[in-house]
Amino acid sequence: MIEVLVADDQAAVRAGLVLILGAAPDVRVVGEAADGERAVELARELRPDVVLMDVRMPRLDGISATRQIAAFADVLVLTTFDLDEYVFGALRAGAAGFLLKDVDADRLVEAVRTVAAGNGIIAPQVTRRLIGAFAARPEPVPPDPAAVAELTPREREVLGCLGEGLSNGEIAARLSMAETTTKTHVSRILAKLGLRSRVQAAILAQELAASGLPGPPGDGAAPDAPGPGRGGLSAG
């Protein structure tokens, strides 16, 4: 069952979202918040799988709330406003997805499932602008080997899987561990590397693979290190 927290300052909109999500057999709404501060409080208390987040809210805006929540729950931003400052701001804050409120009910439910499975989703209307912004950005600074060296061998395996775009369930299957354990590893990776979302972790993993950074000392001797033929971030 996917547990969802709905955050929107308009009661009628919240009621509609709860109705749509509640009709799905695999989704359960565990809480509602009318402002950003309450959304953060409830997210910390309830630990939902997905937080459906509006952008314009009193007390604390949705992007600032996302920045606080993204470290321990996936955030799907849902807004009326197709503005670059909201799109880029939400993704930089760690949101796993960005949709507009004109999305139909079926697509909204499917988006929640997608985010809960550990994947990202972006409204088609803004995808081209994101591609353009990505293409125009300067070359990334090579990642710091010291930060990566703090990861355990298992965390490096999980990071490598994130770089391949695998969901939590797919990572769990590949590495023969529980999906809840996968979520724990992802959270620790984000904390150690100072990242806000699995999307940022995936980008870093790809940059690490491209730069061929060596693994941490003792990589091969650790009990949970990748075996021969297993994916990872070691050079070679």
TrEMBL record:
One of its GO terms (molecular function) is DNA binding. Residues 144-209 form the HTH luxR-type domain. Residues 211-224 have a biased composition (Low complexity). One of its GO terms (biological process) is regulation of DNA-templated transcription. CDD domains: LuxR_C_like, REC_NarL-like. The keyword Ribonucleoprotein does not apply. The modification 4-aspartylphosphate is found at D54. Residues 3-116 form the Response regulatory domain. InterPro entries: CheY-like_superfamily, NreC/VraR/RcsB-like_REC, Sig_transdc_resp-reg_C-effctor, Sig_transdc_resp-reg_receiver, Tscrpt_reg_LuxR_C, WalR-like. Residues 211-236 are annotated as: Disordered. Transmembrane segments: none annotated. Keywords: DNA-binding, Phosphoprotein, Transcription, Transcription regulation. This is LuxR family two component transcriptional regulator. The lineage of its organism: Bacteria, Bacillati, Actinomycetota, Actinomycetes, Streptosporangiales.
